[in-house]
């Protein structure tokens, strides 16, 4: 009788602790889950003739996109919300769902029928980089090496714009996690 009671107690004890450990086995949410703020832009996959720009980082006011603030919230339930402040315009907000497929972040907005597809990666500083292909105006390495500020200041707007070639590259939003 005593042995039977001890066996039952041992079984109850083991089942109690084994059921607790199942809660601990839940996978951690993906790195992308959280609240992110745009802090810089960067250029990637730049053709070799324009390589001085590869990985180059720009402050938000250095490239005229008009974005003053970009906040992206990716929730563990695969919903997102986004708020974008453009200079001189009422802030834009949208929400929807998100999914990771391979190395792509796909945002499906409730306000649009078109999905937004970004390539995505995390860098060594635990930031989030989302990027997309774009055509961007750049000056060739061979030309940029010969330019002086005196020469550039002497050019008309048209002459200055003629220095730039349209180049296909990846445009990166560098996002930092909100604390």
Give an overview in words:
The protein has 179 residues and is of the alpha+beta class. The chain has a single domain (34-177), classed as NlpE, N-terminal domain (Lipocalin, Beta Barrel). The protein contains 4 helices and 9 strands. It has helices at 2-24, 141-144, 149-154, 157-162; strands at 34-44, 57-58, 67-74, 79-86, 92-101, 104-109, 116-122, 128-138, 165-177. It has an 8-stranded antiparallel barrel with strand order 1-3-4-5-6-7-8-9. Residues 4-17 have low confidence and may be disordered.
Primary descriptors:
alpha+beta, Lipocalin, 179 residues, 8-stranded antiparallel β-barrel
In short:
The protein has helices spanning 2-24, 141-144, 149-154, 157-162; strands at 34-44, 57-58, 67-74, 79-86, 92-101, 104-109, 116-122, 128-138, 165-177. The protein is an alpha+beta fold.
Helix-strand blueprint:
Blueprint: H1 2-24, E1 34-44, E2 57-58, E3 67-74, E4 79-86, E5 92-101, E6 104-109, E7 116-122, E8 128-138, H2 141-144, H3 149-154, H4 157-162, E9 165-177
Antiparallel strand pairs: 1-2, 1-3, 1-9, 3-4, 4-5, 5-6, 6-7, 7-8, 8-9
Number of helices: 4
Task: Please tell me the overall pLDDT.
Answer: 84
> Which geometry do the CA atoms define?
elongated
The appropriate CATH architecture is Beta Barrel
Q: Report the β-strand fraction as a percent range.
A: 35-45%
Biggest sheet statistics: 8 strands, antiparallel, barrel
> How helical, in percent, are the residues?
10-25%
First-to-last CA distance: 59 Å
CATH homologous superfamily label: NlpE, N-terminal domain
In spatial order, strands of the major sheet run: 1-3-4-5-6-7-8-9
Give the total of beta strands: 9
Q: Look at the structure and give the CATH class.
A: Mainly Beta
Radius of gyration: 26 Å
- H/E topology pattern: HEEEEEEEEHHHE
Number of domains: 1
* CATH fold label: Lipocalin
Question: Low-confidence runs (pLDDT<50, min 5 residues)?
Answer: 4-17
Overall structural class, as computed from helix and strand content, comes to alpha+beta
């Amino acid at each position: 009788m005593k042995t039977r009671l001890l066996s039952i107690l041992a079984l109850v004890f083991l089942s109690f602790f084994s059921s607790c450990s199942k809660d601990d086995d839940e996978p951690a949410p993906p790195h992308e889950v959280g609240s992110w703020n745009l802090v810089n832009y960067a250029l990637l996959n730049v053709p070799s003739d324009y390589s001085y720009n590869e990985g180059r980082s720009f402050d938000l006011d250095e490239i005229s996109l008009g974005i003053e603030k970009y906040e992206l919230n990716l929730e563990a339930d695969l919903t997102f919300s986004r708020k974008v402040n453009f200079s001189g315009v009422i802030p834009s907000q949208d929400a929807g769902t998100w999914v990771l497929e391979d190395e792509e972040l796909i945002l499906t907005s409730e306000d649009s029928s078109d999905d937004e597809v970004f390539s995505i990666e995390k860098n060594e500083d635990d930031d989030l980089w989302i990027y997309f292909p774009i055509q961007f105006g750049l000056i060739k390495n061979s030309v940029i090496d010969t330019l002086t500020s005196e020469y550039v200041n002497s050019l008309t707007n048209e002459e200055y714009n003629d220095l730039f070639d349209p180049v296909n590259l990846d445009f990166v939003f560098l996002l930092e996690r909100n604390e």
